[in-house]
Amino acid sequence: MAKKILLVDDSTTTLMMEEIIIRQHPGYDCVTAGDGKLAIEAALRERPDLVLMDVVMPEMNGFEACKIMREKSPLQDVPIILLTTRGEQDYVEAGYQSGCNDYINKPVDAAELLALLQSYLGE
Amino acid sequence: MGKQLGTKNRDSKAPSASDGELISPATLTVEARKKAAAHRLQIVRTEQEHMEALREITANLIGSEQMAVYQVERSCCTLRWQFGLDAKPRHLLPFAQEEHIKKAAEGILVSAGTAGEMPCIGDLPVQALIPIRLHNGSGGVLVLFALLQQKKSLDASDRELFELFMR
Questions:
Q1: Using CA atoms, how far apart are residues B66 and B124, in angstroms rounded to an integer?
Q2: Which residue has the higher pLDDT, B86 or B67?
Q3: Alpha helices in A1-123 (DSSP H)
Q4: What is the pTM of this model?
Q5: pLDDT mean over B27-49
Q6: Residues of A in Cβ contact (< 8 Å) with B52
Q7: What's the CATH code of the domain at B59?
Q8: Which of A5, A98, A111, B100, CA to CA, is 20 to 30 A from A23?
Q9: Number of domain units in chain B
Q10: Do B59 and A85 touch (CB under 8 A)?
Q11: Does A24 reach chain B within 8 Å, measured CB to CB?
């Protein structure tokens, strides 16, 4: 059974790029959401195996969404990877404080992303 | 296809990068960026959407959040739009004083790494001057300023994306 990945970003361009990369792996399937609030709803409904989420988004940012997901019992152990254009150390620390498991920077690199997914989801 | 849950453009669909064949991660990165950017540019209907598409692609796929768009006039370029800059860049760039801008206005891509020493606009060092077609049909120049901290330099695959902007 394919592992389900929830992709969260307000940029449809980023979502499309991520989907193209992830769908090259036959063992992964994707669902998408456009902001943090929708991500929480989608995560509770879809029960993904992993969440890959942008930080800077309208309505609710990735840090807040990550914190709330960690408070919801069905999502407490789901790996969350935050993805952002902001590579500064204080952003990275804020990401980990929000409860994420990993943090990667945009622009997305397919090798880095697939290796990270594999480390959490396996082959 | 992934279900689209509340994204800005619900008609977006993710094409495969290579008709189902597995390709190397390096090639996959380049192809995925080009397909996503080309799709984004295809769906713009207004000048505002065009500018937003350029901003989104440049920030998310190339790695610069500081940019400006100039319109090409007879003997200069005039500022039409800017994003991510603390200070407003110069409004008017006369070709007589700005050789790199003149080149870009004539349709030549001027990019760090291929064009020798890059100019500054005001105090802002320029990374790339990309000829584009504005939504109103006139010529334009997209100027990229600082790259994101984690983006060390522009490379050949970035220049492939610039070529999409130039069409």
A1: 10
A2: B67
A3: 12-22, 36-46, 62-71, 89-97, 110-121
A4: 0.87
A5: 94
A6: none
A7: 3.30.450.40
A8: A98
A9: 1
A10: yes
A11: yes
